[in-house]
Specification:
By secondary structure, the protein is mainly α. Helices cover 80% and strands 0% of the residues. α3 crosses α5. It starts with a helix and ends with a helix.
Length: 128
C-alpha cells in the first residue's frame, strides 16, 4: 500500500471520528443542559446534517481505499455533494454567523464542525 493511500485512509478516518465525537458530545451536552432541547431540532441544523454526511462519506471512501475498490460515478457524486455542503457550512458560518449563537455551546465542537471539517473535506477533494 502506498504512503499516499495510507495517509488518505488515516486522515479520513480520523477526521470522521473527530466529527462524530464532536456531534455526539454536543448532543449529550445539549440534551442535559438545554431546557428547550429537541432531538429533531438538533438534527435539523444544516451544520449537523452536512457534518454527519461528510463523516459517512469519509468513512466509506476510506474503506474503499482499504479494500482497493475504485469509486463509482455515484460515489464521486456523493463525495462532491459532501464537499459542496461542507464548503457552504464553512463559508456561511465564517461570513454570516461567526459570533452569533448557533446552539453549539462547546467551543471545540464549534471549531470542529464549522472550521476544521470544512477545510479537511475541501483539502481532501483538492488532494485527490
Amino acid at each position: 500500500m502506498s504512503s499516499n493511500r495510507q495517509f488518505l485512509i488515516v486522515a479520513r478516518l480520523v477526521s470522521a471520528g473527530l466529527n462524530i465525537a464532536a456531534i455526539a458530545v454536543q448532543l449529550m451536552y445539549s440534551s442535559q443542559y438545554s431546557p428547550s432541547f429537541s432531538f429533531i431540532n438538533f438534527f435539523s441544523f444544516f451544520t449537523i446534517l452536512s457534518n454527519v454526511f461528510a463523516s459517512v462519506v469519509f468513512t466509506a471512501s476510506a474503506l474503499y481505499l482499504i479494500r482497493g475498490r475504485k469509486p463509482s460515478a455515484a460515489d464521486d457524486v456523493l463525495r462532491g455533494a459532501s464537499v459542496l455542503y461542507m464548503a457552504v457550512t464553512g463559508v456561511v458560518y465564517s461570513w454570516l454567523l461567526a459570533g452569533k449563537d448557533v446552539d453549539l455551546t462547546l467551543p471545540w465542537v464549534n471549531l470542529q464542525l464549522h472550521y476544521i471539517m470544512p477545510i479537511a473535506v475541501v483539502a481532501d477533494w483538492l488532494y485527490q
